[in-house]
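Researcher: We plan to redesign the surface later, but first we want a full-length starting point. Tokens attached.
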């Protein structure tokens, strides 16, 4: 599995289980596509968009040590910065004010959500994701758009 954990060096991953098999999902787009095709109503506007966004974030968008956290509002981003004692770039935040929204279904086949992304001290990237799923072709498409970089004006140095 891709994700070694400290300090033991063990690893982790995300799995789904049905009555026949254990399905490894982490970084396995084809496995998630198969699962979505088998489970009617999962990738569906009647289902919880936040839960589906979290599954996709945990299985396909997170890669190794790159952290992606769902954000549903500018307040989520600000509270993260405040908690971490980061200085917020007010100009960049102002530009994001009308862009960020909670995870939502844009149509019957499109899910839209936003993440704060980064690695260790470099966590000030805001991205928009549009996820489309065609049940007939079993194809999941991920479109990623960087809305802002370095939204935290000053980040404490990480010394290793």
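Model: Full-length starting sequence:
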């Amino acid at each position: 599995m891709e994700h070694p954990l400290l300090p033991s060096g063990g690893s982790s991953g995300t799995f789904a289980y049905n009555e026949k098999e254990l399905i490894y999902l982490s970084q396995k787009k084809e496995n998630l596509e198969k699962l979505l095709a088998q489970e009617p109503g999962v990738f569906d506007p009647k289902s919880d968009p936040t839960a589906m966004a979290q599954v996709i974030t945990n299985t396909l968008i997170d890669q190794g040590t790159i952290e992606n956290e769902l954000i549903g509002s500018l307040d989520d981003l600000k509270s993260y910065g405040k908690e971490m004692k980061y200085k917020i770039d007010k100009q960049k935040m102002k530009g994001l004010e009308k862009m960020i929204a909670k995870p939502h279904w844009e149509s019957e086949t499109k899910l839209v959500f936003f993440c704060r992304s980064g690695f260790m001290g470099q966590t000030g990237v805001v991205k928009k994701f549009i996820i489309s799923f065609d049940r007939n072709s079993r194809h999941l498409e991920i479109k990623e758009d960087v809305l802002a970089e370095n939204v935290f004006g000053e980040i404490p140095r990480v010394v290793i």
